[in-house]
Amino acid sequence: MANEINVSVSLSVANGNYSDSFSVSGRFDQSTQLSSAGVIEVGTAVETISLGEITTAGFAAFRNLSTATSGTAYVALGAYVGTNLHEFVHLRRGQPAVLPLDSDVVVGAKAYGAATKLRYIVLSE
Fold first, then answer.
1. Cα–Cα distances in Å, from 72 out to 40, 90, 113?
2. Which domains does the chain have, with CATH numbers?
3. Is the pLDDT of residue 69 over 70?
4. Is pTM, for the whole model, over 0.85?
5. 3-state percent breakdown (helix, strand, coil) of the chain, nearest 5
6. What is the maximum span of the chain, computed from C-alpha positions, in angstroms?
7. What dihedral angle (degrees, nearest 10) is formed by the CA atoms of 66, 110, 6, 124?
8. How far is Cα 58 from Cα 69, in angstroms, rounded to an integer?
């Protein structure tokens, strides 16, 4: 089989006299029918995202489920190596992210400001 995974990303902005947009989609192969998904409570200490039985990570999607209306709290995502979180994504309340993961990455998450819930799905490659 081929093209089992469909990824669509769309981003647009309209701010006064400035507007722009970016949209792309693609279909990708998945060799093993595995996924890991759920909602976790992310605290202020680093937590790893469970990949379950996945041995080779593929695409992943994340969303900060916080509904806080004030403050600067966010969830950081990154590669967890040893005892260090190498942050590369900051999700403020409600923000999503879709990422192709390095096949053997350990994904870590850490909340800043306050603990929050994070929804995720990771697909095997």
1. 20, 11, 7
2. 30-124 (2.60.120.510)
3. no
4. yes
5. 0, 60, 40
6. 49
7. -140
8. 33
